[in-house]
Amino acid sequence: MTSPTKAEGSGSAVALDPELEMAAEVAKGEKKLEGRSPGQLMWQRFKRDRTGVISACVVIFFFVIAALAPVISSLYGKNPYTLYAQEPDYPFLLDDFAMPTGSFGGMSGDFWFGVEPKLGRDVFTMLLYGMRTSLYMAVIVTLFSVTTGVLIGMIGGYFGGRVDYWVGRITDFFLGFPSQLFFIAFMPVVTALFVDPRDETPTYLRAVAIVLVMWFLGWMGLARLVRSSVLSLREREFVEAAKVSGASPWRIVRKEILPNIVTPILVQGTYILPSTILSIAFLSFVGVGFPEPTPDWGRMFAVGADVYEQDPMFMFFPGVALVVFVLCFNLLGDSVRDAFDPKTGR
Fold first, then answer.
1. Dist CA 256 CA 259 (whole Å)
2. What DSSP assignment string belongs to 202-240?
3. Assuming Cys at both sites, which of 33, 85, 114, 143 could form a disulfide with 105, CB separation 3.0 to 4.6 Å?
């Protein structure tokens, strides 16, 4: 209820208009409500999710450490290629059975994570460079797979009819390949096409082969997801209005449909990347990934599996690092999905 005030030059009480009072309060500094974009709302929800923020920090930490691996290695004074057991400065690094002489896999002030059995390489720098190899290979494969899946899914979903039928059959054909067995069987074939069997396969060629094989079998799930999303959007009113106004199919897809399916694409991408890292590690574990002496997560597990009874610590650090990264990236994907979902209470 408004309080009466005296009008100027008059003794009578006059009630102010409520709208004038509200305008006066705003003028006095009352906070004005402003609309927020979907991106701002998403960011606000994500910041309230403590698990998501911590997971994002851990993931960023891993990528920064991997990018700075040469700098850290230089400051640390070691590299992942030198056989330190053969260096005169470390004469007793390995025992008579080629196992680390110190406790916990040879951990010391000189070798923070110990040394590799049989060869005596530094485990800390092997892990840094192995993370670098796996993470950035996974990023490349994920980008290629997401781009291919989005393009094929949008083509099938938007045009429908025969186009959708044949795109669906092609997708089903690729889904019929057993991915893990195909990786093992096809990797030697790819490298043999370019390298004589008597010669050693260059590292760059092995990296290209891994990217091609994993890209070849990594886009189908996202393509199906995008297709179903586009099918549900192409009959909506705003798409029909764009068609009536004479917009080209490319403009409709780019301006009307694609912005509305960014959320499932982004969330699915956060699940593809850790899965790709595990697949790259699996290839090296079974011997068809990166060759020696390129540091790699998977090959560290392969060596650790042979010596775990004598030196269990060699597998400990790469194992913990891989589990922490994959777990945090999956938690980050869940948090991003919840932040984009306007119905969630988180």
1. 6
2. PHHHHHHHHHHHHHHTSSHHHHHHHHHHHHHHTTSHHHH
3. 114
